[in-house]
Amino acid sequence: MASDPTAGGAPAEMPVEPDDQIDIPGKPEGDLQQLQAEKADLQDKLLRALAEAQNVRRRAQQDVERERKFGIERFAKDVLSVADNLGRALSALPSNTDSIDPALKNVIVGVQATERELQSALERHGVTRIEALGKPFNAEFHQAMMEIEDPSVPAGTVVQELIPGYLIAGRLLRAAMVGVSKGGPAARPASNEN
């Protein structure tokens, strides 16, 4: 015979009202505060870790962009010597090509075309030539190699370009080596333009 717990010897359990407080053995009230403090600490650590991850991602993107812009810098410096040699070859040629042999004239035209193509390739990759002649001397972009006496030009003006200068993505790749006028009235101060 099955015994009914409410009918016989054992007392029936009383329903718990929501307002009643139950003491759970082994869980003092201080544990709740400790858990809340741990939760706040973990949230702080999570936010810091997320911020650090975002900073690392941003720095990596900046590094990739910098490498994309300036990664060819060493190669570009090496190619500049080729451009210099082509420029020297062109400057050594006679200015009047009418009286020379047609075969030599074709070589001259070929060297000129090669020099233009090289300059175009450099510009496509962000390497631009610094325009120096006739501009006020600017130590950021020019390296003075000599002073030239010329009273017709304001002092401090670039009157001769020995070796052209170049920028890569707006940053100096090689300064222009120039001759600067030391005669005439003073030139206006150089701006930060090339």
TrEMBL record:
GO terms for molecular function: adenyl-nucleotide exchange factor activity; protein homodimerization activity; protein-folding chaperone binding; unfolded protein binding. Keywords: Chaperone, Coiled coil, Cytoplasm, Stress response. InterPro entries: GrpE (IPR000740), GrpE_CC (IPR013805), GrpE_head (IPR009012). Gene3D superfamilies: 3.90.20.20, Head domain of nucleotide exchange factor GrpE. GO terms for cellular component: cytoplasm. It is found in: Cytoplasm. Its main location: cytoplasm. Signal peptide: none annotated. It comes from the Bacteria. Pfam families: GrpE. One of its GO terms (biological process) is protein folding. Residues 32-63 form a coiled coil. Residues 1-29 are annotated as: Disordered. PANTHER family: GRPE PROTEIN, GRPE PROTEIN HOMOLOG, MITOCHONDRIAL. Homodimer. Participates actively in the response to hyperosmotic and heat shock by preventing the aggregation of stress-denatured proteins, in association with DnaK and GrpE. It is the nucleotide exchange factor for DnaK and may function as a thermosensor. Unfolded proteins bind initially to DnaJ; upon interaction with the DnaJ-bound protein, DnaK hydrolyzes its bound ATP, resulting in the formation of a stable complex. GrpE releases ADP from DnaK; ATP binding to DnaK triggers the release of the substrate protein, thus completing the reaction cycle. Belongs to the GrpE family. This is Protein GrpE. It comes from Reyranella soli. The lineage of its organism: Bacteria, Pseudomonadati, Pseudomonadota, Alphaproteobacteria, Hyphomicrobiales. The gene is grpE.
